[in-house]
Amino acid sequence: MNFLLTADESAGLQAFRLLQKSPHVISGVATPAGHHALRENAAQMNIPILEPENLTDPKFANWIRKNKIDVLLNVHLLYIIHPEILRALAFDAFNLHTGRLPEYAGLNAPSWAIYNREERHGVTLHRIEEGIDTGSIAYSSTFPIHSDDTGLTLSMRSVNEGLPLISKLLKALEKDPHSIPAIKQDFKNRHYYEKNEIPQNGYLNWSLPAVEIDAFIRACNYKPFKSPWGFPLTKYENSEIGIVSSILTEDSCKNVTPGTIGHSMNGMTPVATSDHWLLIKKCHLNDKTISADRLLQPGNGFKIES
After folding, report:
1. Which residues pair with 142 in a beta bridge?
2. 54-65 confidence digits (pLDDT tens)
3. Rg value, the chain, Cα
């Protein structure tokens, strides 16, 4: 089958390599100008490189028909594909979504799963329809969320779980395209997470239990890459600082005001929550990551945001 691959990030490059190894034909690649690796790989194979903006233009459907594109495969490229383009495909369009559907539609599903303290996460390969993340499910996979997972580690594990789904799709398209499952989503359980939606308006609330605060911190942590949510903020003295990383303890602080800063130990600084001390490892101030014990002074306190 003739494929149009629309892709970004490392997952997009890995999907390109899976397609390369398959009997299918890559007739075009749409990827941002900044994705040099994918563009260079496509250029070496003389595969047309297309600008992602084409996907929003109904006239691009003419290119789809002219090049007899059977399947559009989208991997981590955040463009809404025009319905005319979808209708021009000879077979169908599929999207790899790094979250369970319909519960985690939209963006930043790994971060939301950590923040919501889910025990398991999932990835979904689904058909692309006019609504966002609404198409029928072809293949899916779920896996445990670890207690120390961050937004980055869970995102990376989601990619690793998602690539085998693409392999399964490619094999089914080769042998019997009509064997691909089409499981309708139950929209009663749908939750759509918006692009600019961030928990607690981006601020930590020290009067919450330690496990909830730690989950928010880990959900935001994509270091060394930029976090889609930024670092969770807290007000300290006359500044707003970000909290980069933390460690849970079982040490009770029931008689201590939440937000109180304790004495540092081993480079980490304890902060009181509603139930247990939370050790803060790294902070972020003035575009620099700083060890907590160099910034936070015992006896001081964070302002509690509600």
Report:
1. 122
2. 999 999 999 999
3. 23
